[in-house]
Amino acid sequence: MRSPLDPLDGKKLNRFHWKTAVVGGMGQFTDGWDLSSASILLFAIAETFHISALSAASSLILSSVIVGNFVGALIFGPIVNKGRKRFYGVDVFLMGLGAIMEAYPLTSPRSYYRGSSLE
Q1: Global confidence as pTM
Q2: Are residues 102 and 37 in contact, defined by beta-carbon separation less than 8 angstroms?
Q3: Fewest CB within 10 angstroms: 9, 29, 92, 98, which?
Q4: How many Å apart are CA 81 and CA 2, to the nearest integer?
Q5: Angle at 70 (CA atoms; ends 66, 73), nearest 5 degrees
């Protein structure tokens, strides 16, 4: 029995394959980055707001990321259905740009820790 993917498997590697791999990979990357960056930054956030990293307030900070994803899906889900391909491209671009901006901040992260217990 033939697989529905046989026509794609038989073709030579072309621009469509690369574009699909990059867009799909960026989608996974940005979702993972969004969820993991909050937990990575939790200690800096806790130090800035003078709360314990193991407190209820820090749990609320982390859960706000998931709630934000949920609310964003509810709001933007119907919009995406009107132009999924275009909107997904814009979303991946903006999330990728945000990830790059987060990786290369204008000020040194060390400047936030001067005089703190994280120095």
Answers
A1: 0.52
A2: yes
A3: 9
A4: 31
A5: 135
